[in-house]
Design goal:
Two copies of one chain form a homodimer.
Chain A: E1 5-10, H1 14-25, H2 27-34, E2 38-44, E3 60-62, H3 66-70, E4 76-79, H4 86-97, E5 101-104, H5 107-123, E6 128-129, H6 140-147, E7 152-159, H7 162-174, H8 178-188, H9 196-199, H10 202-216, E8 225-227, H11 235-243, E9 246-256, E10 262-272, E11 284-292, E12 295-302, H12 306-321, E13 348-358, H13 363-373, E14 378-382, E15 394-405, H14 406-418, E16 427-431
Parallel strand pairs in A: 1-2, 1-4, 2-3, 4-5, 5-6, 8-10, 10-16
Antiparallel strand pairs in A: 7-9, 7-11, 9-10, 11-12, 13-15, 13-16, 14-15
Helix pairs in contact in A: 1-12, 4-5, 5-10, 7-8, 13-14
Chain lengths: 434, 434
């Protein structure tokens, strides 16, 4: 082991600045925990002159992140630029090629290029670490990779996107419409100006692809994840969910289906209010692991934010300094099974359905006839008061089904969507179980 | 690294048998996760002939656990005998002296002798690992030692004893008396025939002493922990707690007090029902870590049981096989600060008080006069109906105080307990906050 570890940070947003602040202000703490001094020797960011809460004394500023790796004395690069391609990819690749350990919080990069990058790191005996890439401060990657390594995982379920969870829990508790809460979340900085990455489920899917690979031993593939976001969830849906003793949360779920394939889904789900994930409010994240012999274990914490993400980055730094290096996916990249393609969730589940229909006699008869043809058993039908929305002629029908395989239900829904009396794409949500 | 790792297990109760079962039935899984074959070569137990769900083919049975270490080919001993002294201590000491790694689930041993054993392991470059010793399947030791290593911890709070949590949550939800639920817990196997180790808080104190050392960098000392168990908690207390919007849970808590000392306490606490730990029901464990920069992170899971405990033991085995060895307390034993002695909790808290008094005029005047002398501000006083218990002359008085330092309150309580009209030791519980 060298007598000290020289680090460079690429990207000084809130997370990068917090990491730099911790490393420079608590130097003695990190020397003790890491077993050697950790020296921040260089940083890269857009603006050299911005005040970021730490002293730049003795730290080189590089305009170009790739210059960090060109320095011969850098042992580890912390990549906090983001994005699956471009500078972040170039930096991480060249760092590994130049013999630098890499710590990253970049879920898009790891979901898209994690296999090749992990292989490159392993070939060179270097660390590629990314605890901060999933669920922020909650150490889900280490739990999965190390603490649960003796288990056969059967299921991972999580609230992986704090923005969506904030929006849905405010809709639930404050009785407000999606658009209204989204606008507030944007004002508070919980949602981006273009929120599609979060609310369309892409961010959660990146994280789920990483967890799925580590948990089930397949090469990561974002296109294996079936993705549904939360744009279509209305206050009417939330109210009806609550009426059924449930709330709605965006979940990432991966489990082995009855064909032995691993089915990974990001989707809004009705969760019974006494389910542990239903109680997670605001921008928190939570992940529940189920397996044998452990049973189940759940971790809850801040999924984003400077402090939480910095905590995860710093844990990776200390692990590497202490020589606790392991393959990114728990097993060597060369041993991962190839990506299998998207698997169907063929578990029978209860479902919640909302149809927007013309308020005309006979609509319900047409709908239920199609459901009967597909052998789908209806549990309840609810037509809220016609005048509720104040618009005559456009009313919701809320239905719940008994246990049905999703593929059957979607076939029926395609036919129902074609009815001239059905005004919009049906909203179909599974009703979660423990 | 050797080409395979030879393991011996001492103690084949439910946990030991499950570990042996996993290692022998899922050999290929463990070879992959550990990077080398894990061979179970010897076991020790009281009864050689009991059927335990795994094949003894190729496994030596030793009557005397110390014979496991006498074998020259054993690389690691898993100690599942229990107890802080005697055979468990002798086995672990001699294993470390003979160059064997040690994995143990023995919280009493680690709380009492962890410092010396860790020093011995570190001097020899061996692992002493004990994830299973605290909170069963929840990887709290790894979280604290590795995942939160970049943080300054300020507080650890946990439900660390499943037996107590089971009893209290059944009292809460089923409206039953302590003795009744304890008897049921004993029948179900959740509580021992002699339950004192659990219900008097000693088991939780062992676990808290370990967490406290890792989190705050002091040598472990069980006598630093102030311990109050749950024997004195009645259904009346639980009902009154619920009336105040709280439940009662046995918590282990450690935090830095305002004198800079680390105060560790095991005690029943009133927790607001919306507190995350108040929602933990049944025999589960949960631990919440608070620090900077992370904020807070909580893990919930099975705190006992064969599968959960085996999961933690197996994670330690894989870590050691992979060379991920670190000092048991996170920092070398030689660097821990000496045990400081028991520190007072000098945080001002609201308190719940139950007095059993003779139902006589003037009692309340005597009590409140003493409280006034100690400058303790009463928030509420409640005298439930005189006939409630059917025993004329013996009634409870329930009080809550505004924020008061415990030492002040206990001084007042000592005087109140001396009043001739006060029939039993006052029950004083702090009212928890987030």
């Amino acid at each position: 082991m060298s007598k000290s570890l020289n680090i460079a940070i690429a990207g000084l947003g809130t997370v990068g600045a917090e990491v730099a602040r911790q490393l420079t202000l608590n130097k003695e703490h990190f020397t003790r925990k890491a077993g050697q001094p950790i020296n921040l020797v260089a940083v890269s960011a857009r603006d050299a002159n911005k005040e970021r809460g730490f002293s730049m004394d003795g730290i080189e500023f590089c305009q170009n992140p790739l210059d960090l790796v060109a320095r011969q004395d850098v042992d580890m690069v912390i990549e906090l630029i983001g994005g699956s391609e471009g500078v972040a990819y170039d930096l991480v690749s060249s760092a590994l090629n130049q013999g630098c350990h890499v710590v990253t919080a970049n879920k898009a990069l790891l979901a898209h290029h994690g296999l090749a990058l992990a292989a490159s790191a392993e070939d060179s005996g270097l660390a590629l670490a990314g605890e901060a890439s999933v669920a922020g401060g909650i150490p889900v990657i280490k739990m999965l990779k190390e603490s649960l390594a003796g288990n056969h995982l059967t299921r991972i379920t999580g609230i992986l996107n704090g923005t969506c969870n904030y929006i849905l829990s405010v809709m639930q508790h404050e009785n407000r419409e999606f658009e209204d809460v989204l606008a507030e979340a944007q004002a508070l900085g919980y949602a981006e100006a273009d929120p599609s990455f979060d609310i369309d489920g892409v961010d959660a899917a990146h994280k789920l692809a990483i967890l799925s690979s580590i948990g089930f031993g397949y090469a990561p593939a974002i296109d294996e994840v079936s993705i549904t976001g939360i744009r279509q969830i209305t206050l009417t849906d939330m109210k009806n969910a609550l009426h059924l003793g449930c709330t709605i949360r965006l979940l990432g779920e991966v489990e082995r289906n009855s064909d032995g394939q691993v089915a990974a889904m990001v989707r809004p789900v009705l969760l019974p209010l006494d389910n542990s994930l239903a109680k997670i409010d605001g921008p928190l994240n939570a992940v529940a692991f189920t397996g044998e012999p452990i049973g189940a274990v759940t971790a809850i914490g801040p999924g984003a934010g400077a402090g939480a993400t910095a905590s995860a980055v710093l844990a990776d730094v200390i692990d590497i300094a202490q020589g606790r290096i392991s393959p990114f996916f728990g097993e060597p990249a060369s041993m991962l099974k190839p990506a299998q393609g998207q698997a169907q969730n063929n578990r029978a589940e209860r479902h919640f359905i909302r149809l927007q229909v013309y308020d005309r006699p006979g609509v319900l008869a047409d709908v239920t006839a199609i459901l009967r043809q597909h052998d789908i058993s209806v549990e309840s039908i609810n037509q809220p008061s016609r005048s509720e929305d104040g618009i005559h002629g456009d009313v919701p029908i809320i239905m719940t089904t008994h246990e049905t395989v999703a593929s059957e239900l979607f076939a029926a829904m395609a036919e129902i969507a074609d009815l001239s009396t059905v005004l919009a794409e049906p909203v179909v949500l599974s009703i979660g179980h423990d």
